[in-house]
Design brief:
Layout: H1 3-17, H2 20-59, E1 60-63, E2 66-69, H3 78-84, E3 91-96, E4 99-103, E5 110-114, E6 119-121
Antiparallel strand pairs: 1-2, 3-4, 4-5, 5-6
């Protein structure tokens, strides 16, 4: 039986016994337990999200001019990674006069990697 189920059982016994004040207190306590349980679940989810972000950060490698996930040859958007810690694959390369253009589907930035490897934002 869960804590909430136990509280409900106790509240029912108290209600039948006719102690209205104690019944109200137990009912209020039941609401607090539900709130604490909900907050605990929220913190567990947040903790998992942070662990995932830390794991991803450990896998990211900078090879100028882009960030790459370890073992992945598709570059990630440097803007999305450096500002929001989002590993978003770039689309491209598309040949342009200055070199190769890469487009980010998330932030809509366009990057030109010159033949020298230097990165320009367009």
């Amino acid at each position: 039986m869960s804590l909430i189920d136990n509280l409900k059982d106790v509240a029912e016994v108290v209600r039948k016994a006719g102690n209205i004040d104690l019944y109200r207190r137990i009912t209020a306590l039941e609401g607090e337990v539900i709130d604490v349980t909900r907050e605990n679940r929220h913190l567990q989810l947040e903790n998992e999200e942070l662990k995932t972000k830390l794991s991803l950060r450990a896998l990211m490698v900078f090879r100028s001019p882009f960030w790459y996930s370890e073992g992945d040859d598709v570059p990630n958007c440097p803007r999305c990674w450096e500002s929001d810690q989002k590993a978003i694959h770039l689309q491209g390369p598309f040949r342009v006069v200055a070199g190769n253009r890469f487009d980010c589907p998330e932030c809509k930035e366009c990057f030109i990697a010159e033949r020298t490897g230097r990165l320009e934002l367009t």
